[in-house]
Automatic annotation (TrEMBL), chain A:
<dbReference type="InterPro" id="IPR005225">
    <property type="entry name" value="Small_GTP-bd"/>
</dbReference>
<protein>
    <submittedName>
        <fullName>Ras-related protein RABF1</fullName>
    </submittedName>
</protein>
<dbReference type="GO" id="GO:0005525">
    <property type="term" value="F:GTP binding"/>
</dbReference>
<dbReference type="Pfam" id="PF00071">
    <property type="entry name" value="Ras"/>
</dbReference>
<keyword id="KW-0547">Nucleotide-binding</keyword>
<dbReference type="GO" id="GO:0003924">
    <property type="term" value="F:GTPase activity"/>
</dbReference>
<dbReference type="InterPro" id="IPR001806">
    <property type="entry name" value="Small_GTPase"/>
</dbReference>
<dbReference type="InterPro" id="IPR027417">
    <property type="entry name" value="P-loop_NTPase"/>
</dbReference>
From TrEMBL, chain B:
<dbReference type="InterPro" id="IPR004353">
    <property type="entry name" value="Mon1"/>
</dbReference>
<dbReference type="GO" id="GO:0016192">
    <property type="term" value="P:vesicle-mediated transport"/>
</dbReference>
<dbReference type="Pfam" id="PF19037">
    <property type="entry name" value="Fuz_longin_2"/>
</dbReference>
<dbReference type="InterPro" id="IPR043971">
    <property type="entry name" value="FUZ/MON1/HPS1_longin_2"/>
</dbReference>
<feature type="region of interest" description="Disordered">
    <location>
        <begin position="1"/>
        <end position="20"/>
    </location>
</feature>
<comment type="similarity">
    <text>Belongs to the MON1/SAND family.</text>
</comment>
<dbReference type="InterPro" id="IPR043972">
    <property type="entry name" value="FUZ/MON1/HPS1_longin_1"/>
</dbReference>
<feature type="domain" description="FUZ/MON1/HPS1 third Longin">
    <location>
        <begin position="465"/>
        <end position="564"/>
    </location>
</feature>
<dbReference type="GO" id="GO:0006623">
    <property type="term" value="P:protein targeting to vacuole"/>
</dbReference>
Length: 200, 579
């Protein structure tokens, strides 16, 4: 393939690549899950992931380009392990059209906004709609209000977010990547809600 | 030029064949016009063109308005507006709806608050001042500090909407952008195209690329051709991020606001603009390799070739801005400018350092309309692998390829050798062998012999007062430059020499009076010597008091030295890497 062609998607159907993309693997004790983070730029998607995967927080914000790929495995109390293969997508507008590249086949979508920015909350709603239209039908969606440590500057109320999340069948949590508040809880909660766990 | 078998160890007066040839060429070239005058007459190389300070120029901005003179059809005389006939459209084909590309019109709800901090750790150590000099968001065209900047870059749309400004917040520069747009469209309405305006010490250079206008305002005395080349690269960097299908957005909506689509890319552009003052690749249109033992590089080539055969379009292993190894799939070739833009994009994007990434990317010379998909992964703090594919689903395959490549590179010790090479640095003028018959492939054969004898101008630099050189292999599209050493030991001096080379390059490649074969110039800063043959271009800087005959002799030695080391400093591959 690909000698002199630069037309994308020409080989999109290649089966050897798609093998890896199954959102989950059918071993009830060792679950592998594709998870995608979506949200406006600057809401802290990368910070949430880096806090979860590496336990780090870097206050100097680094713009994500395209999408970063990280993975982290957690063990649940019933001795099942869940390996999250995380796509941390760029929030910039130019990547919006390319998002399907990353969220297609995802079992979990984490939609993030910044509790100090109503605009980012609107953007989160845009992503929820997009996922409802084009995401996997049984996708687990979480709505995350990040930067909870900045509560004195809060401009999106928890009530408003809860109401929106319930209406759309989402799990809602407020986190702070800075203080690590609720970060692990977020991923543990997601793991509990995975359909293959509930059926097993 | 062939190898010189002259091994009789003759003292200086007896010139070798090569040396005589070069002396002859240089004499021949200057026979009709006295040396130095020939080029000054061209007006491109005034002796006093250097400014010591970069960011803020001492005087106030030129107060007198630029004179626009019509009828300056030749377009190169100073103090006039330069026009060329007709509308050259650079062969821009209408966007084809079938080719994939940018779809920026989607997902534009919500504000794009592109707050960007371009923190950088590695690059800052190397290139000290680019991030200090970047973006002053609080400035606009009314601030004195903004007006004192020595070199501005602007990008705007054909409707006058600001897209990018090197300094200041582009949103506050709407009025200024509209003025630039008015100047450009005024000339275009006359079925003509504006090239530049000269106003006092300032040169305003324009580049029109379809609906996107690029402007540089500079008082750095860089030649028009150099500044235009920089605008071309700036445009290329935009295409890397958005592809040329961005033009379609302007077809649909002439007042389209493109600035939000470049959100988060400030660091990419400021790093590119900074490279205009330190990276010779920006005007040589060639890339440079990290010096490595031939077998080490071949080991890296071999493993990259394996993955290229498995459906990777380009596999590129780089260390900072130098190539370790590079392989393209059959028939695919990578333009040196695309490599520059790609490596600049990767090096200036911090998120690539954090974790493996998969990003759409466009190589403008390869296909300006479509994205390729790049898998980028840092193997260590300096060394990174970029695997480019046409397949948007290719991530897992490329990841597998990377794991395979990484394990081979670790096993065969390539990564250690790369680190060692960084520490050792490249070619040092002090190590230039005095004996041109020396044919060993070792980078530093006999350091004691490396210093020229009693004829040396001083103890610093190389033999015969050689301070620095750049050798560009024309067939390979690669160059090698010596490391900076004493007395060129500050970034200010590096930049000054770099600009002198750039000027030399432009004057050597001048289409109206050139191209030239040799040039020898002396001013209060350097002796500069340039020699161009079918196979290579050599640019060398000497002590300003250097002896001419000795300098010429030394240049011959440099060429011989480079040829002796070519297996270590250049990349030779099976498939063609360039056009």
């Amino acid at each position: 393939m690909g000698c002199a062609s630069s037309i994308p998607d020409k080989n999109a159907g290649r089966s050897d690549n798609l093998n890896f993309e199954h959102s989950t693997v059918n071993d009830p004790k060792n679950i592998r899950v594709k998870l995608v983070l979506l949200g406006d730029s600057g809401v802290g998607k990368s910070c949430i992931v880096l806090r979860f995967v590496r336990g780090q927080f870097d206050p100097t914000s680094k713009v994500t380009v395209g999408a970063s790929f990280l993975s982290q495995t957690i063990a649940l109390q019933d001795s099942t392990t869940v390996k999250f293969e995380i796509w941390d997508t760029a929030g910039q507008e130019r990547y919006a059209a390319l998002a399907p590249l990353y969220y297609r086949g995802a079992a979990v979508a984490v939609v993030v906004y910044d509790i100090t920015s109503p605009d980012s909350f609107l953007k989160a709603q845009y992503w929820v709609k997009e996922l409802q239209k084009h995401g996997s039908p049984d996708i687990v969606m979480a709505l995350v209000g990040n930067k909870a440590d900045l509560h004195e500057n809060r401009r999106v109320s928890a009530e408003e977010a809860v109401e929106y999340a319930e209406k759309n069948g989402m799990f809602f949590i407020e986190t702070s990547a800075k203080t690590a508040d609720n970060i692990n809880q977020l991923f543990e909660e997601i793991a509990k809600r995975l359909p293959q766990r509930q059926s097993s | 030029m062939d190898s010189d078998p002259d091994t009789n160890g003759a003292p200086e007066p007896q010139l070798s064949e090569d040396e005589m040839r070069l002396s002859y060429l240089s004499l021949e070239d200057s026979r009709h016009v006295p040396q130095g005058v020939r080029l000054e007459r061209n007006g491109s190389l005034p002796a006093d063109f250097y400014d010591a300070r970069e960011d803020i120029k001492p005087d106030d901005v030129e107060a007198s308005p630029p004179r626009m003179v019509t009828g300056g059809r030749e377009g190169s005389s100073k103090g006039k507006i330069g026009l060329i006939e007709g509308l050259e459209m650079d062969g821009e084909a209408p966007p084809s709806p079938s080719s994939s590309g940018y779809a920026g019109e989607r997902g534009s709800s919500g504000g794009s608050s592109g707050t960007v901090e371009a923190a950088d750790s590695g690059e800052r150590v190397l290139h000290d001042d680019w991030d200090k000099g970047k973006r002053r968001i609080d400035e606009d065209d009314t601030s004195a500090s903004w007006r004192k900047r020595k070199k501005h870059f602007f990008v705007l749309s054909h409707s006058g909407k600001p897209i990018f400004s090197r300094y200041g917040d582009e949103h506050k520069l709407a009025g200024f952008s509209a003025t630039l747009q008015a100047i450009i469209s005024f000339v275009e309405n006359g079925d003509d195209r504006i090239k530049f305006v000269r106003a006092g010490r300032h040169q305003v250079v324009f580049l029109v690329k379809g609906p996107i206008y690029l402007v540089c305002i500079s008082c750095t005395e860089e030649p028009y051709e150099a500044l235009r080349g920089q605008l071309e690269l700036l445009y290329g960097q935009i295409l890397v991020i958005l592809t040329k299908s961005i033009d379609r957005c302007f077809v649909k909506n002439p007042k389209f606001d493109m600035a939000p689509l470049l959100g988060g890319t400030d660091a990419v552009f400021s790093s590119l603009i900074h490279s205009f003052s330190w990276n010779p690749a920006t005007f040589l249109h060639a890339y440079t390799c990290l010096p490595l033992a031939y077998s080490t590089r071949q080991a890296a080539v071999a493993i990259l070739q394996d993955v290229a055969d498995s459906g990777v379009l380009f596999a590129i292993l780089m260390c900072r801005h130098k190539v370790v190894s590079l392989v393209g799939a059959q028939k695919a070739s990578l333009h040196p400018d695309d490599m520059l833009l790609l490596s600049n994009f990767i090096l200036s994007t911090e998120s690539f350092r954090t974790s493996e990434a998969f990003s759409p990317i466009c190589l403008p010379h390869y296909n300006s309309m479509a994205f390729l998909y790049a898998y980028v992964h840092y193997l260590d703090v300096d060394t990174y692998l970029a695997l480019l594919s046409t397949n948007s689903e290719g991530f897992y395959h490329l990841k597998e390829c990377r794991i395979q490549i990484e394990s081979v590179l670790v096993k065969s010790n390539v990564l250690c050798e790369v680190q060692k090479s960084i520490l050792d640095g490249g070619l040092h003028v002090e190590d230039l062998p005095v004996d041109s018959s020396l044919r060993s492939g070792l980078p530093c054969p006999h350091p004691s012999q490396g210093r020229a004898g009693p004829s040396s101008m001083s103890d610093i630099g190389g033999p015969a007062g050689l301070w620095h050189f750049i050798y560009r292999s024309i067939n390979l599209d690669q160059y090698v430059s010596s490391e900076f050493s004493s007395p060129l030991n500050s970034s200010r001096l590096h930049k000054r020499l770099y600009r002198a080379y750039q000027k030399l390059y432009v004057s050597m490649h001048d289409r109206q009076i050139g191209p030239h074969k040799t040039q020898f110039r002396r001013d209060e800063n350097y002796v500069l010597l340039c020699w161009i043959t079918q196979d290579f271009e050599l640019y060398a800087a000497f002590d300003p008091l250097a002896d001419k005959a000795l300098a010429i002799k030394t240049c011959n030695r440099v060429c011989q030295w480079v040829r002796d080391l070519e297996n270590e400093i250049f990349l030779f591959g099976g498939s063609p890497f360039s056009w």
